[in-house]
Amino acid sequence: MRPLRWSEGCERPEAALSVGRDWSSKNKGHEQAALALRTPMQKEAAPSRSPVLTVKNVSYWYGAKQALDDVSFEVYPGRVTALLGPNGAGKTTLFSLITRLFDAPTGRIEICGRSASEWGAKALGPLGVVFQQPTLDLDLTVKQNLRYFAALRGLKRKDADERMLRALKALDMEERIGERVRSLNGGHRRRVEIARSLLHSPKLLLLDEPTIGLDDPTRRAIVRHVHELARTDNIGVLWATHLFDEVEPNDDLLVISRGKIVARGKAKDVVAETGAKDLGGAFTLLIGGDTEEDVAA
After folding, report:
1. Does 172 share its domain with 283?
2. Per-residue pLDDT tens over the stretch 120-131
3. Interatomic CA distance for residues 124 and 101, integer angstroms
4. What residues contact residue 198 under an 8 Å CB cut-off, 6+ apart?
5. Distance between CA 68 and CA 71 in Å, rounded?
6. Can you give the residue range of the structural domain that contains 177?
7. How many independent structural domains does the chain possess?
8. What is the value of pTM for the model shown?
């Protein structure tokens, strides 16, 4: 088995971790953002661009309960793909399959053209993840947490420290590098987790409802930063959420209900096709009464 080369099916400059403007900087307007988000999703994408994530015909069961039903989609570099669905729709189950916490009994999942079932841990190399539940060590400092992760990724100490400082600075967290994570508030902990997920210059970033429990200003800042990160570093982002205001009009949108993808396309196009006034109205029309509890809770 030959080693995985990141250039295969997952091309982007190695000057990764530029991570956009500082966290505290203001957005310069939706018009400029919209111009940067012209690449359509899936079949409309430019043929020369390869997806960073491909999910084909994936289904999953918890005993007799089906959590995912023949799910297929792609995520492209430089794009934010919003996975929008209610609790219990299958979002967390899907993330568990992509990250190989669970094994997919049917279908195929490829990251940069490589299936983890065939390539093992090497296929997960281009992947960065922010899970729904916090995963930082509360008794370590910010620096210790990030250094530990960098060591697991095989980064040399000097390189790791340089990447760490750039990421924390962009997230307005540089001055907290020596603080224990336990002393940080929820928003600051999330920023550290985002910084950690970017240390190894991922091509694909997964975020599983990363803003749960955060105040609105912090939540909006994280949403804005991740969208900017996708554009500036050409990272493909899959963002799971049930909050409509976290989806921008030009985002690629997947609406999932009871384990099935019930709508896909640019968010603004999905809204237009339903005849609704906004995404919330479109979502209600698309999912009907799907409010069951998350089977993967």
Report:
1. no
2. 778 888 999 998
3. 12
4. 16, 17, 19, 128, 163, 167, 205, 229
5. 7
6. 134-201
7. 2
8. 0.79
